[in-house]
Specification:
It is a single chain. By secondary structure, this protein is α+β, with helices and mostly antiparallel strands. It contains eleven helices and 19 strands. The strands form six sheets. A six-stranded mixed beta sheet has the order 15-14-16-19-18-17, with helices on both faces. The two termini are 42 Å apart. The model has no long low-confidence stretch (mean pLDDT 92).
Length: 340
Amino acid sequence: MKLMKTEDAVGQVLCHDITQIIPGVKKGPVFKKGHVIQAEDVPVLLSVGKDHIYIWENDENHLHENDAAEILRQLCQNEYMSASEPSEGKIELTAEVDGLFLADTERLFRLNRLGEVMVACRHSGFAVKKGDKLAGMRVIPLVIEAAKTEAARAAVGTKPLFRLVPFRELKVGVVTTGNEVFYGRIQDSFTPVIEKKLAEYGCRMAWHTVLNDDHEKITAAANEMLREGADMVLCTGGMSVDPDDKTPLAIKNTGASVVSYGAPVLPGAMFLLAYAEGNRPVCGLPGCVMYAKRTIFDLVLPYLVAGVPVTADQLAAYGNGGLCLNCSVCTFPNCGFGKA
């Protein structure tokens, strides 16, 4: 790369985009990288403040910003993502499907700690829609040493930094529990909430039963749904520590492997997560899921629908950010709930 007076640069090759900004009208490149400067271009370049211009000189020890950005893209992009064309050293990734966006935050930190290169992404662990912006990456200097991109490769390794896991169209079984509902003392207002949340992810309730607080019946109903092919079973109600609350015992007796009974999230502390044969989730949903705007169920449901296992460590980590502030206008997931 060589700096020249603009008037002397006719016939030379631009090594970067030249941006023109007209407030309220335009912001974009007036000339693109690789453009051969003509005599008629000189007044235009001077009008955008370019009294001097960088022209390209080949150097095997350095990379142009766009070429280096392409290396960053290779380190970041995985399936179900599309990439923009490099422009001024920047590339953006966009979702090609609805799914769960996941970032390896430790390796992302190592990359950004190198300096002269940067990658920024939306928060990991949340649902995205097709067309959503996922990440952006940029090279800071116009020209970067090739050794810096090699250091980036070493920091990231061969596995891409980001994953987008498509959502599955699950068939879900719902076991509604509680004497008050079973005997008709109150209306079942829990099941409609569950159906609505499932529909947000393209899933449907294929089995439903209402039972009293008999743990043997709850166990039998959940197991029957699993035998008939349910991809997930949700048991609603009966999740507290009252003597009549038998749902946790019923789920344990299905034979499913319990990940955790309880989570450091409010609302949703009494949530229970287990996995039956075939890694099919069996969940006990506390009553707050019925009336609170957002709960622990909203944090884990994208993982369950994507088929990404939820671990006890992940649940424990929700303690940092796991307090919903119950805002008068809910903006979830564009808020701090569930984000460390």
